[in-house]
Amino acid sequence: MPKNTDLAAARARQRAADRRRPPAEHRRLRTVLFAVIATVIGVAAIGLVAMRLLPPTPAAAGAYQIRASMGGFQPAAMSVKAGSTVSVELTSTDTSMHSDGGGWHEMAIDELGIDWKVGPESSKVFQLTAPTTPGTYTWFCGICCGGRANPSMQGKLTVTA
After folding, report:
1. Could you identify which of 28, 51, 109, 153 might form a hypothetical disulfide with 114, taking C-beta atoms 3.0 to 4.6 angstroms apart as the criterion?
2. What's the CA gap between 91 and 65, in Å, rounded?
3. Which CATH superfamily is domain 64-160 in?
4. Cα–Cα dist 29/36, whole Å
């Protein structure tokens, strides 16, 4: 009798194990689904790394290059002839992950009615018509970084005769 009891217990344990184990087609589906998800994540990661390794987009021909970041403007000075029209390419080098302004930057000159804005990690070309009167004008970023009060978020436009 002990053998039949042992045999019955072993069969009961096997049936319980079979109920816990998914059928073979479910295991195959899970394996395929895992492979697809892993591939998609891998391709996305490779794409993100590749985008970071690409060189910056070429600058607009003949435009003044002004880069804005949380550290300030580079360069922080620009000189133009009175009455001339020049192109200015304003670039934000900050990412959208910045908590102060979300990577947006501004180049504003109140006296000239200029208020240019550019989004995170992007550039935009603006046209500047210099005043006919020589002088020095201060630009600033009022979106982030302390705004007008922060000396690193300011620059000088010098208009010469």
Report:
1. 109
2. 8
3. Cupredoxins -  blue copper proteins (2.60.40.420)
4. 11
Whole-number Å distance between alpha carbons of 47 and 45: 5
68 CB-contact burial (10 Å; exposed 0-12 / middle 13-18 / buried 19+): buried
Distance CA 28, CA 33 (A): 9
**Which H or E run contains 73?**
strand 72-74
Mean pLDDT of 138-149: 82
- Domain boundaries, given as residue ranges, for the chain: 2-53, 64-160
pLDDT band with cut points at 50, 70 and 90 for residue 148? confident
Write the pLDDT tens digit of every residue in 106-127.
999 999 999 999 999 999 999 9
**pTM (two decimals):** 0.61
- The residues facing 107 across adjacent strands are 116
- Could you give the CA distance from residue 78 to residue 130 in angstroms, rounded to a whole number? 11
Bridge partners for 92 per DSSP? 68, 122
Tokens of 85: 């029209």
Distance CA 91, CA 59 (A): 10
